[in-house]
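Data availability (excerpt). The following record was deposited with the supplementary files.
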Amino acid sequence: MLTVDQLRERARKTVGLGGPDGPPVPAAEVLPHLDSGDRNVRVAALRVLAFSDEPAAADGILRGLDDPVKRVREVAAKSSIRFLGDQRVIDRLRRAVEDDETGSCRPALEILGGVYHAPYGLMAVEPVAEAMAALAAIPAHRQQVLASLLRARALTDDVAAVLRDFVRDGSKEEAVAATRRLCGLRIERRELIDEDILRTAEPARGHLWYWIRAD
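Predicted structure:
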């Protein structure tokens, strides 16, 4: 088992676009730290588990999502991206959004929507369509779901089906926006758009978001 100092050093190295150097730390070396009474140690453990390739690491992420401390739940959600192949993780993230859990709700929705960019080198690249379809049925989250789908780079058949639901059942504004995404446009933040593309891009929301070609 890693010492607390080793764990903290390893967690520190996860911060950055490239993630930590070297192979992942075995989950068995990290999981016991989730029993620590120090929330900062639990946070460090989750950041290290975020880069694990082991199924056992998903158990740690799930524990973090159930942690009584807001900050720990937040980091657990942000550390869950590599485990979206585990239905338990998807279901737990969805519940975090449905229950509007403090700390984990926002990153959970961004991850399920395929638009999350972590501060420590992880990103969600494809929406989890089944979860987004279910969350779209909740009025409090409907606009956030659509906003995520309009930003998502990947337009899979399942995601397209959710967008068609917005076209069929949504307001006029929702239907128009969903149709534009289905027709090959997506929304992106201004600072992430090449200046040449920005010259002809159409504003989507104020001066921060623009419609650009999805490809």
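Summary of structural features: The chain has a mean pLDDT of 92.
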